UniProtKB/TrEMBL annotation:
This is Uncharacterized protein. PANTHER family: MYB-LIKE DNA-BINDING DOMAIN CONTAINING PROTEIN, EXPRESSED (PTHR48000:SF67), OS09G0431300 PROTEIN (PTHR48000). CDD domains: SANT (cd00167). PROSITE patterns: HTH_MYB, MYB_LIKE. It is found in: Nucleus. Residues 9-62, 63-113 form the Myb-like domain. It comes from the Eukaryota.
DNA sequence: AACGACTCCAACCGCGTTCTC
DNA sequence: TGAGAACGCGGTTGGAGTCGT
């Protein structure tokens, strides 16, 4: 038995909203709130719209204090940083950018930001005319230096982020174990995942031999086989997963994680190092993030270190106290009871 | 001016999660 | 406790606008 439709599809209007419909919806919600039931709301107002459509329209367009377009550099950085950390969880990212909606950020990322980053990096690579090996070596040194210099604790990261001085500290969110065999084959290039991995890579740098910290003066232990790891059976994967979260490898190998996590939120998963895993243009880009470029990704380098390591100790998700509020996401607006006027007033007055 | 390619974004769709009874 | 309803989210699509030829 399939899922019941949320509304009578035959009797609902679809497509762009008219100014009259907008006015009706806005006026009603401002006066009465949503009543906690989007499905019933269109009937109350006399709109021939699906409740879900009303909700979307309100959240993405009619809600007070919505900003459209004109993303700042700071916002770009926050989006990229959070994308690296948590992936395409647009609602969480949106919660950190006041006035932005998840849909807006998603569109911005897919249509502009991603291309902007890719385009810049390609140009610089072509202009630099450097060999991949040289660039990787430079970047690796850069990464290791930043790692050695790193040492900020949670609190410092929190305050600097809140002052907009630095990209945020954002721990890996816990996810169900996503085994390594989930990674796409080269022939099935997964754009979201791969671009994210790319950003992670640009934020740090593996060495050419596959060890992320080869030559680094810190005593980092990261078995090379974890980097070029491959497993073909669930048993192998489980065993490797257990290995992965042992204390000796957690800290260093986090840098190469895909963002997957185990139940405790300890990130697991390895970005494949084999040449040819990324498509040619992405591989080219991966090698083009040279020191001193203004491609806009350098901030990821220092941030990745801090993101994963706190005073030399791997923290689980539960142990971390994110400075970024997960509450008060824009979508919480519609949960407000009828007495939402106070909230509205505060929001509006602070914005005017 | 006309046309096709491309870009952008509002809106839709489907599915996992949460809530309610 | 389980089923159905509703919510919330991320991926995708359609079409209007823009650009290049």
């Amino acid at each position: 038995m399939g899922r019941a439709p949320c509304c009578d599809k035959a009797n609902v209007k679809k497509g762009p909203w008219s100014p009259e419909e907008d006015a009706k919806l806005k006026s009603f919600i401002e006066q009465h709130g949503t009543g906690g039931n989007w499905i019933a709301l269109p009937q109350k107002i006399g709109l021939k719209r699906c409740g879900k459509s009303c909700r979307l329209r309100w959240l993405n367009y009619l809600r007070p204090n919505i900003k459209h377009g004109g993303f700042s550099e700071e916002e770009d950085k926050v989006i990229c940083s959070l994308y690296v950390s948590i992936g395409s969880r647009w609602s969480i990212i949106a919660a950190q950018l006041p006035g932005r909606t998840d849909n807006d950020i998603k569109n911005y990322w897919n249509t502009r930001l991603k291309k902007k980053l890719l385009g810049k990096q390609r140009k610089e690579y072509q202009a630099a005319g450097r060999s991949k090996g040289n660039i990787m070596r430079i970047k690796q040194e850069n990464y290791c230096n930043s790692r050695i210099m790193g040492g900020q604790n949670n609190q410092t990261m929190s305050s600097t982020f809140l002052n907009n001085q630095m990209v945020p500290y954002w721990p890996e969110l816990p996810e169900p174990v996503a085994p390594f065999f989930d990674r796409p084959e080269p022939a099935h290039f997964n754009d979201h995942t791969s671009v994210r991995k790319l950003l992670i890579k640009l934020g740090g740098s593996p060495s050419s031999d596959g060890h992320p910290c080869h030559g680094c003066s810190m005593n980092l232990q990261c078995p090379p086989d974890l980097i070029t790891y491959s497993a073909t059976t669930p048993d192998m994967i489980n065993q490797r997963s257990a290995d992965m979260i042992s204390p000796s490898v957690q800290i260093d190998c986090q840098f190469e994680t895909t963002g997957y996590g185990n139940a405790e939120g300890v990130a697991m998963g390895i970005v494949p190092q084999e040449s040819g895993w990324f498509p040619p243009d992405i591989e080219e880009l991966m090698c083009s993030n040279v020191e001193g470029s203004d491609g806009g990704l350098e901030f990821l380098c220092s941030w990745d270190d801090h993101m994963m390591v706190n005073n030399g100790t791997q923290l689980s998700w539960k142990e971390m106290s994110s400075p970024i509020s997960l509450d008060a996401a824009p979508s919480d607006y519609d949960r407000l009871p009828q007495g939402m006027a106070a909230f509205d007033g505060d929001q509006l007055s602070s914005d005017q």
